Amino acid sequence: MMGKSITKFIATIVIIATLAYIAVAGISVFGKTFPSALDEERGIRRGLDLTGGSVITYEAQTDTVSKEDMATAIQMLRQRLDNLGYTEATIAQQGDKRIRIEIPSISDPEEAVSKLGATAELQFMDADGNVVMQGKDVVDATAQFGPTKENGPNEHYIALTFSDEATEKFYQATSQAAAKKAEGKNFIAIVLDEAVLSAPFVDKPIASNNAIISGSFNTESAAWLAGLISAGKLPFSLKDIELRSVGPTLGEKSLETSLMAGGMGILLVFVFMLLYYRVPGFIADISLIGYMAIVAIIMAGMRVNLSLPGIAGIILSIGMAVDANVVIFERIKEELSLGKTLRASIDAGFDRAFKAILDANITTLIAAAVLWRFGTGPIKGFAVTLAIGNVVSMFTAIVVTKFLLRQTVNMKIKNLWLYGAKGGSR
Questions:
Q1: 267: burial class by Cβ within 10 Å (0-12, 13-18, 19+)?
Q2: Burial of 396 from C-beta contacts in 10 A (0-12 / 13-18 / 19+)
Q3: Which end of the chain has fewer CB atoms surrounding its CB within 10 Å, N or C?
Q4: What does the pLDDT look like over 4-52, one tens digit per residue?
């Protein structure tokens, strides 16, 4: 029993150490790459205040612009930015007809404009260049994965839903396109800012308000095209009148200082937990290392855009992870003071602390969900990092810490002083 517990304890530490290594260095297994959290190309991306980026100023190409139309344009551009993964980008109105956008991690403004693709209204054109439909005719566009034909293979595609008025226009357009199959002109091009995003072929007329776009899509390209189509209903055309790159507002030196301060703070927490709670504190330190590694791996995999608000969300979630362990250990000490055995105290302590930890984490997740749903830019970044850290902290506190504590009991480490309590062994 004792030998198995020692093996499990050591194996858990090895797993956590491996996760920490993956978080820092990255790894490739069976053709699947887990990028390092420090890899800006494939891992966590830095926000504009940390790494600089591009600033674009657009101007509405119309004589008069209502407040409602400007609000719609800003909302659509915000959705395009979010679809591209630039949740840390900022967007604001300037004057009556201009919109200013700041996009992190893209030092070339021309590249930023190309990626955003937001200077004109979306259009559907036939092979002769005639506009058959516009972006406003599309009610919804979503990226999906599955068979597009009966008994066909699974593939990535975009599912379109048209308005009732557009259904007839789409039927007429697909009928005319299908009739030109022999000429090789049986396609309808999806055009944005005079650039063809996709040109799917039409095999037969489509009379319903649903259609699909299939082709050589992957997860990212399908989501990108679906996002542009969904957000392609701008009320007017936009022209970029200013393009420039900007440096980081925080600066490399300030970033290094902030990371050093954060590292010192975490180190002090480690020392405090170890000295005050002893064996449970040591286990909490191990769990906290695992927590930070898992969070880093998830954020790198999601390519989170990290800025100062995002860092604040990480620090807050680290504090919640430590707090969860403190609540558990104090409950264990209370159970020990009642004369219970160490094993019974650990089980009862976790049971008593679980509701308090669950309530705190659920309310935090609700707050994060509200911030993500109604917030924009850096606020969404804060919500994402807070939610990720919150979920992972629950796992490490309830599962990892409890598992390791049970192994220490099985390893005959039962001196109560080592658990921060008074007395002998139980």
A1: exposed
A2: buried
A3: N
A4: 888 999 999 999 999 999 888 888 877 677 788 878 777 887 776 777 7
Calpha distance 210→4 (Å, rounded): 59
Percentage of the chain exceeding pLDDT 70: 88
Report the 10 Å Cβ neighbour count for 149.
Answer: 9
Q: Kindly list the distances between the CA atom of residue 169 and the CA atoms of 24, 126, 131, 393, 395, in Å, as whole numbers in the listed order.
A: 54, 12, 11, 53, 52
Model confidence over 403-416: pLDDT tens digits?
999 999 888 887 88
Tokens for 224, please give them: 């990108």
CA–CA separation, 273 and 262 (whole Å): 17
Task: Give the CA count within 13 Å in the CB-facing half-sphere of 227.
Answer: 21
The amino acid at residue 268 is L
- Residue 243 corresponds to which tokens in the numbers above? 């393009």
E strand segments, 4-52: 27-29, 32-34, 45-46
Amino acid at site 193: D
Residue 230 has pLDDT above 50, yes or no: yes
Contact predicate 409/383, CB 8 Å = no
DSSP designation for 248: -
